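We give this protein:

***
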Amino acid sequence: MRIDIITVLPELLESPFSASILKRAIEADLVEVHFHNLRDYTTDNYKSIDDTQFGGGAGMVMMIEPIDKCITRLKEERQYEEVIYMTPDGETLNQGMANHLSLKENIIILCGHYKGVDQRVRDQFITKEISIGDYVLSGGELGAAVLCDAIIRLIPGVLGNETSALTDSFQDNLLAPPIYTKPREYKGWQVPELLFSGNHAKIEKWREEQAYQRTKDRRPDLLDD
């Protein structure tokens, strides 16, 4: 998989991809992640990529020309299955969406900034608009990092245990059940005895019941889905 991220602040994205699982996935050549500074695609002496709104109003708007130049150049080199725009009014990211995107070969992610992008960018280039929640950030970079993390960890070979991602919360519209590790007893707090029984069928049934109950208590909306 290859992910190209178009941004005004590439330095803001360096840290998330230089540690832990994302770093290992890149070093193992399981994924390519490339940052593209939008200011490199403007001929303006001040490297401006934004301007005031037509019709008036507060906030600057990202101009269409540098975005067009960047996307067009990338598309000349390869085909992209998705061109994603990170925006608060996009479709809310969920596990099913991450699963679907993890199967793609090449995607572009455009990070919004300021008041947003010229609507013509959304009309002409964007195939999917994604939000990571009902709140507003200073830019789309952090949202893009969240999206990439959710996608990349699903690529075969990225996680040490191939079944690990399949048992995460939301994979089957249920939250994950309680989990425990050593020590068996701590300050009088005990681990459920069933987990030491060796009866894997009963343990699995207990986990399913716990997952269902936790979902019912905390996210009943998932059960409606």
Remarks:
- The helical segments are 11-14, 20-27, 64-77, 95-101, 119-124, 141-152, 200-218, 220-224.
- The chain has two domains: 2-152, 169-224.
- The beta strands are 2-7, 32-37, 50-51, 61-62, 82-92, 106-111, 128-131, 185-186, 189-190.
- DSSP finds eight helices and nine strands in the chain.
